[in-house]
Amino acid sequence: MMRSMAITGCRVMAIVLAASIAALAQPETTVHVDADPRHLLNSFDPDQALGSSIDVLSRRDIDKVFTPHVIQESLSAGWGPITYRNNTELRMGAWHWNEKGNWSDAAHKSGYWTSSAELKEPLRYILAYALPHRGFSTSGDRPVPGPELLYWKSNPYLTGKFTGESDESHPQWVVVDLKAEQGVNGVRIAWENPYATRYRVEYWLGKDALDFDRGPDGKWTVFASGAVQAGSGGTVTLKLSDQPIGTRFIRVLMTASSNTCDLHSTEDVRNCVGYAIQSIQAGRIDASGTFLQTTRSAAEPTFCASSIDPWHSASDVRDDGLYQHTGFDLLFTSGLTSQLPAMVPVTMLYGTPEDAAAEILYLEKRGYPISYVEMGEEPDGKHAMPEDYGALYIQWARALHQVDPKLKLGGPIFEGVNEDIRVWPDEQGRTSWMGRFVDYLKSHNALHDLAFVSFEHYPFEPCEITWKSLYAEPRLMKHILQVWREDGVPRDVPLMVTESHLAAELTGPMSTIFAGLWLADSIGAFFEGGGAAYYHSPVQPQGLQNSCQGWASWSNFVSNSNYDINGYTSLYYAAQLINREWAQHRSGVHRMFPVDVDLKDSGGNQLVTAYALKRPDGAWSLMLVNRDQSSAHSVKVVFANGPRQAQFSGTVRVVSFGSEQYQWKNDELNSHADPDGPPVAADVDAKASGSFELPKASVTILRGKVSGIER
């Protein structure tokens, strides 16, 4: 039921006439396009730079999505390349991209897994496995549940055996969040093997110690008797100070290991390095020496850990059909990639370098084109330290480049943030996660392994979106791009948004006209700010759900649980305008130039934004976003190259989509748009028109030739 791109003829003229009448009350505004080649802002090829994504699905959903009709509909939005999202690593699980492979402890079907790179039957589904050594740690997004959580153990790949550095260079830690400030002067730790021989117990003075998005405001302080120099394992109860100290967060920081083997095979060094803890309790020790666990908080304490050992077993599989990833063979042969190179992930936080190398070897044996490889998944959301991520990155990069030296590797795949990610200060007082990661690579002569930097973009809180939020998007996007540069990301390292939407949780505006305007502004501002590739999520339909601001869909489509598409969202039509009218896929490099529009409301908000491209076909393409909810605006477009000025000449293609073509009706599972598009289009004579009307709350593309400004 793919919707035709635009309506034409008499209906177009009626709509244009109505917009013109509405615009008469508004003074004409001039849009200035700086066409001077010396002022070029950016260049990009849509076949590399404008894409979408595929994420975790149920087995049933995979079977529904990967059918000819749904794939055809998914591609009709016009997006180019695909990026594959790794939700399993997001949720602290092990990812078996191929169910055939080898366990390090084959006799017990357990240990460290390496999928097979042999070419046998095509891969249709990918399974997730829980990590028994996650133990009590709950960092991450709803961890993959498992049948048995043995204990917490740190990642062996962060020890000197693998990093080549001292263990003190990568201290491991566990933070206990008591949920409210409590008086603490004692701790009870039940150690497992390997245990810490040198560690210290600290308390936090300040605000939220784990808020890396806003930046933890405070400092860790060692309890008066909190430093242990010769730990011997077992269960220990430590009196940390004479009097209880009020704090919400307790940290056990470990810097030297016993290197005694855990309950698994002693033949694998990975079982014998790092640190392992069965349980931690914070509390008070009274005058008689009795330990009393804290009880003031109504909520149970939670635990956050620096890393997790990727050891697991065959019995830890989650194979209920509800949580799958798409098999690589199914993805690459389905047509969903549009025969373009795809961005693929490798597990790094909870995997092994051998498994990552086998994945790339498999894909290359199949002949599947790979554009980029993302390393790990959202380390900031799991509170990983930048130096730890850097140490893993170098090991994985070495293994992957042994398979293919030309692979373009990158990360860190940050969660959607609008400001710098700040962590606890290091010895030099540095708090920037990105800055410290870049410095770590530099200090280890490995910055050349960072071929791109990727991050997610979810700019708004889902329940707080208002129309005025729209005004903030260009500033938010350009700001975060500048933040990464100021953190030290070299200018020649591309910046990529590899997952994006209004918010990280479903919200009603995702299906209103707001979303379409936001997408146009987000992409336009991204490329104006110097970005290299933008992937909007997701490519496939998803059903309607309720949210704090009404019923909506994450996707371009209005569909039911059977993937029957009943309509389209504003995101779909905005995507078509971006991919089929503003830019031109399969044509080559587009050049972006500065645009100035001075049209603001009484509050100083920019009402119209504009983004100018010079396309390979020689046409100028201007995307204008009228963010005025109530009024149309008339604009005159002037192109300037030094003293030379010109306007559109000949025929100008005008395509517009906005609130006059699309109104979302919030009606629970019957929610839909009425009217539901499509955009309106007309070819007009530039001399006859003189100016162009931008309907209220709309995205408009103007495309045509401009003569007389070339030097």
What's the structural blueprint in terms of helices and strands?
Blueprint: H1 10-23, E1 29-34, E2 42-44, H2 46-49, E3 50-54, H3 59-65, H4 68-75, E4 82-84, H5 87-90, E5 94-96, E6 101-105, E7 110-115, E8 125-129, E9 152-153, H6 160-163, E10 172-184, E11 186-191, E12 196-206, E13 218-228, E14 235-239, E15 245-257, E16 276-285, E17 291-293, E18 302-305, E19 312-313, E20 317-318, E21 325-326, H7 328-333, E22 342-346, H8 353-366, E23 370-375, H9 386-403, E24 409-414, H10 433-443, E25 452-457, H11 469-486, E26 495-500, H12 513-528, E27 533-536, E28 557-559, E29 565-568, H13 570-582, E30 590-593, E31 595-597, E32 608-614, E33 620-626, E34 633-641, E35 644-646, E36 648-658, E37 662-665, E38 672-676, E39 680-685, H14 686-689, E40 692-694, E41 698-706
Parallel strand pairs: 1-34, 3-4, 3-27, 22-23, 23-24, 24-25, 25-26, 26-27
Antiparallel strand pairs: 1-31, 2-30, 5-8, 6-7, 7-19, 8-20, 8-21, 9-16, 10-15, 10-18, 11-14, 11-16, 12-13, 12-15, 16-17, 28-29, 30-32, 32-33, 33-41, 34-35, 34-40, 36-39, 36-41, 37-38
Helix pairs in contact: 8-9, 9-10, 11-12, 12-13
> How helix-rich are the residues, as a percent range?
10-25%
Strand order of the largest sheet: 4-3-27-26-25-24-23-22
Largest sheet: 8 strands, parallel
| Chain oligomer state | single chain
Number of strands: 41
- Class of secondary structure makeup: alpha+beta
The residue ranges in which pLDDT falls below 50 over 5 or more consecutive positions are: 9-25
CATH class of the domain at 172-305: Mainly Beta
- CATH topology type of the domain at 172-305: Jelly Rolls
Rg over CA atoms, rounded to whole Å, is 28 Å
